[in-house]
Specification:
N-terminal domain of TfIIb; YjdM_C; elongated; YjdM; 11 strands; mainly beta; 28% strand; Alkylphosphonate utilization protein; single chain; 3-stranded antiparallel β-sheet; SH3 type barrels
């Protein structure tokens, strides 16, 4: 029988597999089975889109809701495709250039990854 890997956050051995995710009952951390097999730095932040898909630098994403731009009357419309994103630390964890608007920071919870 396969034993699940220890939790990458708290190193608990009481983890369990629930469909597509591994879960830790001690700290509540959940992670994808596809990344559990790779060696990762525990301090590295994993950025996920609104559907839970892992995002990487250079990915293409689509905006899933109209986003008002502070200090402007412009709006980033739902369905706007943003190419070649860059992941950064902070509240707005995606740096990108939006067509027709320019450079901007987005929150990953308002985008979904475009699968080629």
């Amino acid at each position: 029988m396969n034993t699940p890997p220890p939790c990458p956050q708290c190193q608990s051995s009481y983890t369990y597999h629930d469909g597509v995710l591994y879960n830790c009952p001690e700290c509540g951390h959940a992670w994808s089975a596809e990344i559990s097999g790779t060696a990762q730095d525990p301090d590295e932040k994993i950025v996920r889109d609104a559907n839970g898909t892992v995002l990487n630098d250079g990915d293409t994403v689509t905006v899933i809701k109209d986003l008002k731009i502070k200090g402007s009357s412009d709006v980033v419309k739902v369905g706007t495709k943003v190419k070649n994103i860059r992941l950064v630390d902070g509240d707005h964890d995606i740096d990108c250039k939006i067509p027709g608007i320019g450079p901007m920071g987005l929150k990953s919870e308002f985008v979904k990854k475009v699968v080629d």
